[in-house]
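Render this sequence as a predicted structure.
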Amino acid sequence: MNSNGDGKPEPADPENAMRLLELELMQQRMARQHGGTPYRGFRAASLMFLFAIILGALLAFFYVFYSGRLDEFRTRNPAGPSPSENATSPPP
C-alpha cells in the first residue's frame, strides 16, 4: 500500500524497488552537487552586509569617543544650571 498518496503504484518485486530507490537517491545526489544550496549567494551577501555594519559601528565609535569629538561637543555646549536645581535651592 502506498502511504504517500501521490498516486505512484508500488513495484511488485523488491529488486525493482531497490533499483528505483538507488536511481532516485543518485538523482538527488547529483542535484545537490550541481545546484548547491539555493540561498548560498544570499547568505554570503548578508554576512558581508553584517560585517560592513559592524565595521561602520566600530569606526563611528572610534571617531566619536577616541578622536576627541565628544570633548569638543561638550566644550562648545557647556552645561548650564538646570531649572530644577534653582527651584530646590533656598534663596540667599
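Summary. The CA atoms of residues 45 and 51 lie 10 Å apart. The mean pLDDT is 78.
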